[in-house]
Design goal:
Blueprint: E1 2-10, E2 21-25, E3 32-36, E4 44-45, E5 58-62, E6 68-72, E7 82-88, E8 91-94, E9 100-102, E10 108-115, E11 120-128
Parallel strand pairs: 3-4
Antiparallel strand pairs: 1-2, 1-11, 3-5, 5-6, 6-9, 7-8, 7-10, 10-11
Length: 130
Amino acid sequence: MLELTMAAVTAADAGATAGMQMADAPSEPGAVLKVGRDRSVCRLTTPDDWLFVSRVHLEFRCGPDGTWQLTWLRGSQPDPSCEVRLTVGGHARPLAYGGTVPLPTGGSGEIVVQDRAEPRSVNVGFYHEA
């Protein structure tokens, strides 16, 4: 099972948990959870006017062996208007635009989508139940 929690945070809301969303999916091959602005395909959605987040921005996909991977999907622009960081075990690392990384089995962490133009972010916590 992969569990996600998401909060959209502005400088004025720092530390607040209002508007938190949650989603989960079983660790079955082909299971997918998406994060973005498009409510028709994303389980976790950001405000419509947060254009630094693509319509479908992040994809969590379960592989044939029950492990999950995270992909920062490429949007319509050649260069992103945000940065994406993955933090696991206290170590943060950037995720490349269009890149994919595995998530630790039985672990937890956070993905931060940081707007480059304003002090706001999308914080997605994850827990992968072993």
